[in-house]
Design brief:
Layout lengths: L4 E2 L10 H7 L16 H21 L6 E4 L2 H15 L6 E5 L4 H12 L3 E5 L9 H7 L4 E5 L13 H10 L3 E5 L11 H4 L3 E5 L10 E5 L14 H4 L7 H39 L3 E3 L10 E6 L4 H7 L3 E2 L15 H5 L4 H5 L1 E5 L6 H22 L2
Parallel strand pairs: 1-11, 3-4, 3-5, 5-6, 6-7
Antiparallel strand pairs: 2-8, 7-8, 9-10, 10-12
The protein binds pyridoxal-5'-phosphate.
The site of pyridoxal-5'-phosphate has 13 residues, from helix 3.
Amino acid sequence: MRLPVYLDYNATTPVDSRVLEAMLPWFSEHFGNAASRTHLYGWTAEEAVATARKQVAKLLKTNLKEVVFTSGATEANNLAIKGVFEKYSYKGKHIVTVATEHKAVLDTCHHCEQLGGEVTYLRPDTNGLITPQQVAEALRSDTILVSVMYANNEIGVIQPIREIAAATHAGGALFHTDATQAAGKLPIDMAEEGIDLLSLSAHKFYGPKGVGALAVRQGVELTAQLDGGGHERGRRSGTLNVPGIVGLGKACELAQKEMNAEAERLCRLRDRLEQEILANVPHTFVNGKASQRLAHLTNICFEHIDGENLLLSLKDIAVSTGSACTSASVLPSYVLKILGLTDDQAYASLRFSLGRFTTEEEIECTIQHVIETVERMRVGSAV
Ligand SMILES: *Cc1c(COP(=O)(O)O)cnc(C)c1O
């Protein structure tokens, strides 16, 4: 059986063979605990972690003291939001975020509400964008944190982060961004963009699953969410996942070198895929077609088609409707609903996300497959 063409890189990516190679010695040959300060085994592991920390810091153009390793972006978002909420609750309990954030941000904000916090959920325009003015207007004297994702996982829209961070700071609050879909894909400069806290995850850019980081600007304090041995300068206790961290570091190094060429190549393929589908399949439109969006992704609505049937019929390609995290339930994507789509339109929207190993041939096959499948389904239902 031939495997379907993988076009779900926003859900997860395969580990790059160069990343895997860098990780392998750290499982059994160099197995030391990075917190063991009394012997060579520990020092060797600690050194590997230090190298990875430099690689992450370099990708984000930040100081290496500011990188806290976590189990992924979900944990990084929890640490950022709950950590600031607890630490700065003496100043205020108000948080500003956006209704189209990932669940790892939204549910963490709900948790803060249960603890007496107040959260403002900004509504983006029909392309998924929010404005710095919206943020400025939402700020109050008791606002401690603004959290706005860098690039959206479902539609790829890129928020005006620099301007939003400036508006946040003008109001005296801290700025956090969930950059899980932007890290390793877009050039990021934490200091210049005014980002206080940034979450990322290795498995979204060719590193392993179960490892990520929260970058924290120097001077920003956090209440730890895990109590224990005081690892990561007291910010995240727990024995470090050395192979995973080495893999994350290597993924950062590769991304930094290759992201520009990769984005250019994927943008060409994405544009071809999108244009061919729009030109050859009637009743289609792109969700979130803002001028600023990720180069490797398109989210297309196929109107007057049963979404579930569409996904089942497209058996030669692996794509998603909504985000993987909400697809356990059969609810339509809340992100697409907020952009103004009906339930039917949201169900009939597909996210195609390309990546490092996507080939031109795969895109050609996908175009043909989508055109033929939708035609067949539309004839069947006479629309
Ligand atoms: C994947 C993703 C997450 C969750 O990351 P994990 O490392 O899998 O926990 C959070 N936010 C965004 C935007 C994502 O795409």
